[in-house]
Amino acid sequence: MTATQPPSAWVAGLRLRCPQCGQGRLFQGYLKFRDSCAACGADFKAADSGDGPAVFVILIVGAIVAPLLIILQFGLKLPGLAALTITMVAAVALCLAFLPPFKAVLFAFQWKHKAREATHADIE
Description:
By secondary structure, the protein is mostly helical. It has helices at 9-14, 52-75, 80-112, 120-123.
């Protein structure tokens, strides 16, 4: 009997699935990790992707909405308040949409590479 190969970290993360089996759901809420995978029993209690997902999302959303604001205000000649309102709504919507997949992908890469917080024993 051969062991099944874990799914790609990209695929598991983008599908918001367990990085070990690719089947069980990773989140129990919007951004809260489950304690364990319902399909394979992998333990997610130590899951922590830190601030990485937020940083990536902010950079990507900023690169999208900054040109949008310029296009709306100067290209389409919308009033400043209207252009700003549309841009802010787009920024919030994009951040809310991008955050779970980015958090899941970063966690899947941490899982794949067995990344963890350094301890005193690692230094010696």
